[in-house]
Amino acid sequence: MAKWKVVLTDRQFNSIDDERAILEAIGAELLDYQIQDEDSLIKLFKEVNPDAVIMQYANLSRRVIESMPNCQIIAKYAIGLDRIDIPAATENNVCVSNVRDYCIDEVSTHTVALILAITRKITVLNRETKLGNWSYKNMGSVRNLRGLTLGLNSFGKIAQLVAEKMAPYGINIIAYDPFVPADVAAAKGIKLVSFDELVEQSDILSTHVPDMDGTRGMFNKSVFKRMKNTSYLINTGRGPVVNELDLIEALKSGEIAGAALDVTDPEPIQPDNPLCSMNNVIITPHAAYYSDDSEKTLKILTAENVAQRLQGYAPRFLANPELKEKLSLKTLTE
């Protein structure tokens, strides 16, 4: 009989062999579901009473967390921690873990790809050429990247790598991040500016902030009016950061020149959404994080977080570190 029951609420991966192998090695049983809504999760947890939960897109609200009194850890397949009520988890002595150092290279590369594709009109040219319209004139207005300003909304690991990968194009790079010291950014050759300066000076504005109370809807009608009408918005962070209706209006009115989005709100985006019919918009299906390598890393590290906690250790990626001392969790070096 298994020592622990681990519920996997939902996943988009074809296989969970890696996770199962890691958890079975410590005597834990992995129970696989595809449930995301709160009421169904509460019903499930009352029946199963899990010792740990792995989730991807499920909504783990306070109600859900309080329905599983034995749970020791909620482990998320992600860098971001949205959809988990962390204060509620902490109050109930439930560790929360993510995977902070995976897919940095993939997301930054995808961001650069979107920047190049939207500014060089790659998708427009591809479509028109395949339709038999062989002409560079299908590009419309195109500016040389050299000398333009790329603005980074956040200057964390992903944004820093975007800056490194874009620098050889001769582009000027600025960033807004109230949590990064100016000297840290300066050491990487990046000037920190205010959010207003970022919005007004950027020719290409790439946002990398998480979805939280202070960022949700931060790109809205007011911001789009202050952006250059030749500027592009790139979002490989979180969909709710952008007010979609305001973005659609800004694109229709010409307040900004275009957008390249790997994330939308909601997801998946519906085919009848106006963004899907705009030639100056590129949309990819929340795929920036993906490579064969990054997916395997994510799955393994998520399962290891769970295994570490169940064995009395603080997981490697602990989002509520105050529980380490409170629960007398061992460190991984012990």
Automatic annotation (TrEMBL):
Gene3D superfamilies the UniProt entry points to: NAD(P)-binding Rossmann-like Domain
Residue span(s) of domain D-isomer specific 2-hydroxyacid dehydrogenase catalytic: 18-318
SUPFAM superfamilies per record: Formate/glycerate dehydrogenase catalytic domain-like (SSF52283), NAD(P)-binding Rossmann-fold domains (SSF51735)
GO molecular function, one term: phosphoglycerate dehydrogenase activity
Keywords annotated in UniProt: NAD, Oxidoreductase
GO biological process, one term: L-serine biosynthetic process
Segments traversing the membrane: none
Top-level taxon of the source organism: Bacteria
Domain D-isomer specific 2-hydroxyacid dehydrogenase NAD-binding: 112-288
PANTHER family per record: D-ISOMER SPECIFIC 2-HYDROXYACID DEHYDROGENASE CATALYTIC DOMAIN-CONTAINING PROTEIN-RELATED, D-ISOMER SPECIFIC 2-HYDROXYACID DEHYDROGENASE FAMILY PROTEIN (AFU_ORTHOLOGUE AFUA_1G13630)
Entry's family note: Belongs to the D-isomer specific 2-hydroxyacid dehydrogenase family.
Protein name per its UniProtKB record: C-terminal binding protein
Source lineage: Bacteria, Bacillati, Bacillota, Clostridia, Eubacteriales
